Amino acid sequence: MAGQSNILDKLKELARNLWWCWQSNVIDLFRELDPALWREVDHNPVEFLQRIPADQLERRSAEMALDSRIDFAFRRLSEYLKGTDSWGAVHASILRARPVAYFSAEFGLHESLPIYSGGLGVLAGDHLKSASDLGIPLIGVGLLYNQGYFRQSLDANGWQQESYLDTDVSLLPIEPALGPDGSPLKVSVETTNGTLHARVWRVEVGRTTLLLLDANVPENNESDRTLTARLYGGDGRTRIRQELLLGVGGVRAIKALGIQPSVLHLNEGHSAFAVLEKIRELMEETGLPYGEVHRDVAQMTVFTTHTPVAAGHDRFPAELVEEHLGRVREAIGLSYEDFMGLGRVYTHDANELFCMTVLALKLSRHANGVSALHGVVSRRMWHPLYPNLPEEQVPIGHITNGVHVKTWVAPQMAMLFHRHLGPDWSARQRHPETWGAIEEVDDAELWETHQILKARLITFVRSRLVAQARKRGESDSSAARFANVLDPNALTIGFARRFATYKRAGLALKDIDRMVDIINDAKRPIQFVFAGKAHPEDRYGKELIQYIVKIAWDDRFRNNIVFVEDYDMNVARHLVQGVDVWLNNPRRPQEASGTSGEKAVLNGTLNFSILDGWWAEAYDGRNGFAIGAGTNHASIQVQDERDHASLIDVLTHQVVPTYYDQDEAGLPRKWVARQKDAFRTLAWKFNADRMVMDYVRRSYAPAAGGVTCQ
Fold it and tell me: Full-prediction pTM beyond 0.90?
């Protein structure tokens, strides 16, 4: 039993560091102990180990000879944590003593830690993972949402329903952050009408640490105890109090832990209050005036803006700002008018709301968008802040987003890379020459690997649809029909993202009568898999979901258009790994980046996208398909009509013919050639390792007082 206890202890250690979630071999260990329970707990190893009976753990370990594999995984984690031979050890040594503090309102690390809603959070999670792999000294700062983002279901009318479940903290991979005296750390933030309190948790993400602030503590009143219950829930008052905790509370938590960051990285404007608190802190420590400290803190601040959509930038009325930041304002010695001016484009316009993005831009000296086109759009959008500069000289650059490869590549595809690109391919992923070897992969092997992933996706979707139907109260016979939807041999198109109106989820289905003939073509059928959530207050987004769902339930489309409920990282993983085509058709130029398409690339899925965000700088005519010519029209209606026409034209004259042009062996040689082109031209560039290295070279090192690295 002592040996078994040792094995359990090692599994618990593995479960407590999210390094496991990008190690397919470790995931397999948990799954093989009890596949059904692993699915039941939503792939949460902490809950899994609490629920698996000890005798079953012992029996399965013996039957599957898992002991040595568990030992090996444990050693790998230990070696990884102790490793000093990393890119960061050489190129980011300036950050070793004083790391980067990376603030974000959400972090998407894994579905078992539900503190994210979409792309912004997943990007933040991928940033932490790559910082860990590269050995970049970095501390994440966020909020612990006790109910997370909502769980989505559809009623009998196809209308989105939201439910919120309280999370049992004991089932999460988190531990209390301990202060210098060894007691659980708590921080407080004073406002003009009371004090907010929060406890601090820590999550280990490989070699990086994520700090999460939690307002559910006895010191708060009942209203404030629910402050961090839900992500993006509540009104403006709730939002500003959350952002006060994130920014001001986050800086205080870091200081209380004895961490002295040399860089503050604001991932979106939600955390911009952090800069004000850092100014206050340094004024108190140094005795220097606001002007001098402001200059120094702005130099150490990096700000990443993520959206060109006006509604995506938080704005608050002046009285709400004064209520919550009045104490900070007084401490840094600014008048009411000067302080409010920090959040306004037109400083003295008392009617202008206080904007968090404006505050972040005014208090940082290193600002960037998240793609080349988004950089252009951001400079145009915020040009009024810099009236004395030409638009092209507005100090907002760009660092194009990337995705964490080992999180998003399917194990089957990773094995193919291992065989043909070399066992160390993932360590060399950012080098173009690494991917050149993909040309030598046999077409049949690549196609077979893709078909395996597609079959896995269809099995997953069928299972989810049957469960959805039963949950809606449909009869067993009615639910059973979903067990046969989707054809493994048909061209399969995936569309999954937040159902914001500008993303135009229904664009492909705008002309239903025409789509009937295209979708149900006897020789060249196509099928769609949709997923995504609308914000609870976004009625238009909900109507769009209902529109698509009702089409999916139409007898003409019942087998080839489906909507998968409750989109999360697990659903996303299956979709980007298994569909043939990843469709993205936002209204240009409102898609800042679009990282889901980058995840698709890693799995041999071809992008079919508007030339917006990352695709505007990625598409070369052979590595996927483009909708439109990269132009905009003054009329939204005209632009939508033109883009719809282009989508249908490219679909019917390029995508479908290329996919179904198969030789006698059933291989679509021209399609596979495009897959290889996509791997070769895109995988090395649009990954998070390259992204984080760009941040180190262009932003972190200069912000920390160093010179730009090469």
Answer: yes
